[in-house]
Amino acid sequence: MSAPTAAPEPVAGDPRTPWSGTVRRTAEGSIEVGGLDVRDIAVEHGTPVYVLDEADLRRRARAFVTAFTSAFADLAGADVYFASKSFASVAVDRWVHEEGMHVDVSTGGELAVALRAGVPGDAIALHGNNKSTAELERALRAGVGRIVVDSLGEIEHLAHLAGALGLPAPVMIRVTTGVHAGGHDFISTAHEDQKFGLSLASGAARAAVDAVLARPELTLLGLHSHIGSQILDLAGFEVAAGALLTLRAEVAADTGTLMPELDLGGGYGISYTGADVPPTPEEIAPALAAVVRRACEELGSAPPRVSVEPGRAVVGPAGLTLYRVGTVKPVVLDDGSARRYVSVDGGMSDNIRTALYDAEYTATVAGRRSEAPTVLSRVVGKHCESGDIVVRDVLLPDDVAPGDLLAVPATGAYGRSMASNYNLLPRPGVLAVREGRARFIVRPETEEDLLALDLG
Ligand code: LLP
């Protein structure tokens, strides 16, 4: 865990910045995003609120598409899927699709949103380790471009469904390569002792390939690997790619089938506090292309079309959460030092990542400039438990006071999508901002919404 710091000031083009591209300090000292002053946003739309910088999000989506298209142009091409679990909404699925991305969904709900956004079925990938029959049927009827199968049982089940419906079933096989990477154990997904995928080491992945090839109802597109999330070092992706390409070549040698596609998953890390320098699409794409090129040359196989599935790296840095401070309380620690507890009007219901993963965030006083000296502070929410922490350690100005606005950057991914109604707090809305205009793309919940679910 790094030493507490203050939030970095927004500086356009800084590779470490956790702020979205249009965030800046105004002459009056407040924060502006998408051409709007956060003071006006708070007055007009209330707090807490997730603010999504549309131009920034579109730019990140486009950067991935451009970088992968160009890096893989002399191989067999590339597709970039937006992992919509990071934040599924009709507007965002439409934006990323307009910028050239496909969309990856992992439930019927995410599928429904992608279809409503107008994403064509063949640009959608369906994931999940326990897809329901209803989800598989809807995906087949929607003509999804790929269903990523996760178990031998699912292969039989899907073949049966596709046969009964008389619909094509393009399939990829989720392989666990043994590569263990990511920001936290819960979000590392390719080591052996976890629920995802079919293991390479045990032979389950190869058995799945043979099972798919044996079913005429299924079309085998390729192998898929997702090694984890919030990964800052590309080495794990390179190892996983090599392992999948080796299995692909073995299958080709044994069966004569050279799978045309390869999916390397998502998981690219972002800057949450300003301490990390995340890899850019312009670095990621050529690094992966080089591994694919080299491995295919060594194995003597024609290169596959490659896909990747970034979620966080597209939507995470584009979002910030705006809170209003309610109370400020100094607490004396065991060693005699003090920590300032700054309570905001949301908490673990709008951002569970700090409590769940020990995730690090930062925060700044957003409605004004302060020249006051900084003090060690903890930003906490209004829930009834002490683990309700939004930012564990941050230096905030000594004069932070009730009524101040606080902005927490980099909350666009896995914020609203993992929000809850704990303590019956309505979930905040998602306000898209662009060129001085704002609109809710997900409206704030109300107490009426919550009461409507309660049947008495
Ligand atoms: N593809 C697959 C198959 C995945 O399972 C995931 C994430 C992604 C792509 C996108 O990963 P990303 O690029 O967003 O890192 N709730 C956790 C993250 C869980 C990610 C699960 N799978 C968090 O808040 O950090």
How would you sum up this structure in a few lines?
The protein is of the alpha/beta class and 456 residues long. It has helices spanning 38-45, 54-71, 90-98, 108-116, 133-142, 152-165, 204-213, 235-255, 281-299, 312-315, 353-357, 447-453; strands spanning 24-25, 31-33, 36-37, 49-53, 78-83, 102-105, 124-126, 146-149, 169-176, 198-199, 218-224, 261-263, 305-308, 319-332, 338-344, 364-365, 374-380, 389-397, 405-409, 430-434, 437-442. The longest helix is centred in the middle third of the chain and has 21 residues, at 235-255.
Total number of helical segments?
A: 12
Quick one: how many beta strands?
A: 21
The CA-CA distance between the termini, in Å, is 46 Å
CATH names the topology of the largest domain as TIM Barrel
Q: According to CATH, what is the class of the largest domain? A: Alpha Beta
Rough outline: globular
Main sheet summary: 9 strands, mixed
Domain count: the total is 2
Percent range for β-strand residues: 15-25%
